[in-house]
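TEACHING EXERCISE
Course module: macromolecular assemblies
Task: Read the component lines below, then compare them to the predicted structure of the full complex.
Student: A.B.
Group: 4
Components provided:
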Amino acid sequence: MSTRSADAGTRRPPVDEPRVREAVRTILTGIGENPDREGLRATPDRVGRAWSHLASGYSEDPLATLRGALFEEECNEMVMVREIELYSLCEHHLLPFFGKCHIAYLPAGRIVGLSKLARLVEIYARRLQVQERLTAEIAHALEEALSPHGVGVVIEAQHLCMMMRGVEKQGSVAVTSCMLGAFRDDPKTRAEFMELVGRKHSL
Ligand SMILES: [Zn+2]
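Instructor-supplied answer key:
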């Protein structure tokens, strides 16, 4: 996987809801619907508000979030949070992908509040994504904020763009991983992580 910076520089202003509303009206007209019929009248407004939420990650700073909850701690054992729920949108089709994210790191004198790991996933997931980049961004943000001995991130997700259209492979799960430091270089650390993830084969 390519290395990528944690990309805090992508911080942007909040969603421009009036423009989203306008675009939704255009889509409704484009598919042959009448945007003024009763059931659709409030739809552009609702979709605009939904996108404010779904794209809220652009206006949040992942590194600041992590740095606000760092603690000095002499802990040498792997810290892991399994099965963090994940909902994101693929940037190719604007359709959801969703699943679980597993995050682990080996502290080097610093730990971060556990809830911030879930928060980190949320910030990057609420941007348009591809699963591979989402995985790498989460790992690199942790590396940058914590300078740990290593980071491992695995995401298992199902993509509606595969399930609803095109190949229609129901139930197939895409698995991506990003291993940094000891998780990449030390087979024992990597194996311990993968065992905790619940998959013994290497990814
Ligand atoms: Zn897609």
